[in-house]
Write a structure and sequence with these properties.
- The strands form three sheets. Strands 4-3-5-1-7-10-2-11 form an eight-stranded mixed sheet, with helices on both faces. A four-stranded antiparallel sheet has the order 12-13-14-15, with helices on one face.
- 30% of the residues lie in helices and 15% in strands.
- Helix 6 runs parallel beside helix 8, helix 7 packs across helix 8 and helix 12 runs antiparallel to helix 13.
- Strand 14 and strand 15 form a beta hairpin.
- It is built from 13 helices and 15 strands.
- The longest helix has 31 residues.
- It has a domain of 307 residues: Alkaline Phosphatase, subunit A (3-Layer(aba) Sandwich).
Length: 455
């Protein structure tokens, strides 16, 4: 079995029509979903960008021990194990964060799509169409990103276009090999949300206000209603642009006759608040105001094609990115090492309908390496029926009933103190078993069997 992983950074699960018809146009991925298994309860664990990928590479949930950094010394990685088994491995990406922490080093080859035009534009040359204080980190990243894309004129200039074309070329060069593995990783849907204008016009053609394309990573009271709607339209345009070029890659796979011997995993690392819960952005930038990872950010799209007979159309078992490593290894006939992640193969074959009992999601907020001081996070505990949120004082535990309250607006923690206490005990056990330091455990777990009031 050969394997392609397609990772679409910042893609919300509900921005795909196959999950949520009516918001974003995603015809190519929706068509792919018709032949796939659709996973409905996949959630990020280590958050955000780099930590999620490290989970996927190692099969472990690493946020209790460390944050934004590469793989720990001694941890096995998926590309390394595949190479040892004789697979040709390649990484095609425009997500430069992966290279910055060395994840590309585990592959036989990698192709990083960069800005290749020497137009002389720098961040200092960028003009701001909105108040700088209304942009994340006073517009520093906005200026950097606009400088990188100042030369854009044709759709072929956009990163996702070039990344998917490079992936297609790699397949043409390597698909005749007996065993191969390809990871395709695009940052396109990450802000700056600046697709070609005709994509934004699909959603908000009449807009004539300030040019908001970059969320403030804060609260949405700075936006007028039409400005927030425009921000959502720009995000939707990025998703539709990405859908078009992912469709180009998927069609290449089909035309080359690879579907009968290739597994394709399409997923994301996290979503994004764009007005939900009064927030914009995926995380806080205020160390004194840790944000929760609710479903808008934490739930992941996950579509898998495998050439198995009688695959189910939907899977409702709890899953997480650490499952990618053992899944790919089992698909490739390689015995996975013991990991927190568990293979999805029994789910794909219809031989099981349960997986993890609980998924624990957070950005590392302890004292381990790779902590980002401004990026603090509450801890989300997801079960098949409930979502619980835990944090340090003065935060009080929160609990949401997934069936009765899918938008997670009605905190029912006071009505279910026993369940809250049970989930906090499980969180403490998980953090301790995954190497969290004692202070981190005390701050977020406050010990076992403490009252659910958060006192």
């Amino acid at each position: 079995m050969n394997v392609i992983v397609i990772l679409l950074d910042s893609l919300r699960w509900d921005a795909l029509g196959c999950y949520n018809p009516g918001w974003v146009l995603t015809p190519h991925i929706d068509a792919f979903a018709q032949r796939c298994v659709r996973f409905d309860m996949a959630f990020c664990a280590s958050f955000p960008t780099v930590p999620m990928r490290v989970d996927a590479y190692t099969g472990e949930v690493n946020w209790p021990r460390y944050g934004w950094k590469g793989v720990d010394e001694g941890q096995l990685t998926l590309p390394e194990l595949l190479r040892e088994a004789g697979y040709r491995t390649a990484l095609v990406l425009d997500t430069a964060n992966n290279v910055a922490v060395g994840l590309h080093e585990y592959y036989d080859e990698h192709y990083l799509i960069r800005k290749e035009v020497e137009d002389g534009v720098t961040a200092a040359d960028v003009e701001f169409p909105v108040p700088r204080e209304n942009l994340r980190q006073n517009g520093r990243l906005y200026a950097r990103d606009r400088a990188r894309t100042a030369h854009y004129r044709y759709e072929e200039d956009w990163f996702v276009t070039r990344t998917m074309r490079q992936a297609c070329q790699w397949l043409e060069d390597n698909a005749q090999r007996e065993k191969w593995f390809l990871w395709v990783d695009t940052f396109e849907i990450h802000e700056d949300w600046r697709p070609p204008k005709y994509y934004v016009d699909l959603y908000d053609k009449a807009y004539d206000g300030l040019d908001y394309t970059y969320p403030n990573y804060g609260y949405t009271d700075i936006y007028r209603p039409n400005e927030l709607q425009h921000l959502r339209a720009c995000y939707a345009g990025e998703v539709t642009l990405t859908d078009r070029w992912v469709g180009h890659l998927l069609r290449q796979v089909e035309l080359m006759g690879l579907l009968d011997k290739t597994c394709i995993i399409l997923t994301s690392d996290h979503g994004k608040y764009i007005g939900e819960h009064g927030r914009a952005g995926k995380h806080t930038v205020d160390p004194d105001d840790p944000w929760p990872i609710l479903d808008t950010v934490g739930r992941l799209p996950l579509l898998i094609w495998a050439p198995f007979d009688n695959m189910p159309k939907r899977v409702t078992a709890l899953c997480q990115p650490a499952d990618i490593m053992p899944t790919v290894l089992e698909l490739c006939g390689i015995t996975p090492p013991p990991t927190t992640g568990r293979s999805w193969v029994p789910l794909l074959r219809g031989e099981a309908n349960t997986h993890h009992g609980t998924v624990y999601s957070s950005c590392h907020s302890g004292s381990g390496p790779g902590r980002i001081e401004y990026l603090t996070s509450l801890i989300t505990v997801t079960t098949p029926t409930h979502t619980a949120i835990f944090g340090p004082r003065p935060h009080c535990p929160e609990l949401y009933d997934r069936a009765a309250d899918p938008e997670q607006l009605n905190d029912v923690a006071d009505q279910h103190p026993t369940l809250v206490a049970e989930l906090r005990d499980k969180l403490v056990e998980f953090m301790e078993s995954h190497g969290a330091d004692a202070e981190y455990v005390r701050a977020y777990g406050r010990g076992k069997s403490t009252s659910a009031s958060g006192g």
